[in-house]
Amino acid sequence: ALPIWPLQTLGINVCYWKEKVPGTYGVPQKFPCFMTLHTSGVQHDIYGLPSNEYPGLIKVCYHYGNSTDPDTRDWPQRFPALPDIEILSDFVRKYLPGLEPKPAIVERCIYTNTPDNNCILDRHPRFGNIIVGAGFSGHGFKLSPVVGKILCELSMGREPSYDMTPFRMARFPVNVKSSL
């Protein structure tokens, strides 16, 4: 039996908001990426990226979602929706008045979270030939160069270039067993 670590998958609404004046919030205008930390009384963070992926649309998202099964993420939702789009609409009206107050596009994304929102980068405690990189809480791609370096070092049997204490599996109690 292999231990299972406390990972939770969340379905996130990824929202794109239309610029009232095209180009206002774009990369050429040096509009920044941003993240709010518990702004306006909301429980989780809000982040945004300039208009680039979809021209004329800026990405503004709520960094949280509902528990979801990755195998059924595109099925109709069987749980009450989070008020995230309403929270984002209020945020856009207040802080980004150059955007339409309703999202033009809503896509689904899955985050895999650990209880402390730090990823796991480690060797399996029983099987040293298994290297684990998981639980990136929606920001793994932003860290991919350093994550790739660390996973490479671990897989080559080298000591990682960084202190790995915050990312070790041992920080979580392991109570559930899986039979693989």
Q: Would you give an account of this structure?
A:
The chain has helices spanning 84-95, 144-155; strands at 2-3, 8-18, 34-36, 46-49, 57-62, 66-67, 105-113, 120-123, 131-134, 177-178. By secondary structure, the protein is α+β, with helices and mostly antiparallel strands. Strands 2, 3, 4, 5, 6 and 7 form a 6-stranded antiparallel sheet that branches. A hairpin with a 7-residue loop joins strand 4 and strand 5 (57-62). The protein is elongated, with a radius of gyration of 19 Å. The termini are close together. 22% of the residues are buried.
The number of distinct helices, counting runs of at least 4 residues, comes to 2
Radius of gyration: 19 Å
- Mean pLDDT, to the nearest integer, reads 84
Category from helices, strands and their pairing: alpha+beta
Helix content percent band: 10-25%
Q: Name the assembly state.
A: single chain
Low-confidence stretches: none
Q: Note the main sheet.
A: 6 strands, antiparallel
Kindly state the number of beta strands: 10
Tell me the series of helices and strands, N- to C-terminal.
EEEEEEHEEEHE
First CA to last CA: what distance?
6 Å
Labels describing this entry:
single chain; 180 residues; alpha+beta; two-stranded antiparallel ribbon; 13% helix
Question: Which helices and strands appear, and what pairs or packs with what?
Answer:
Blueprint: E1 2-3, E2 8-18, E3 34-36, E4 46-49, E5 57-62, E6 66-67, H1 84-95, E7 105-113, E8 120-123, E9 131-134, H2 144-155, E10 177-178
Antiparallel strand pairs: 1-10, 2-5, 2-6, 2-7, 3-4, 4-5, 8-9
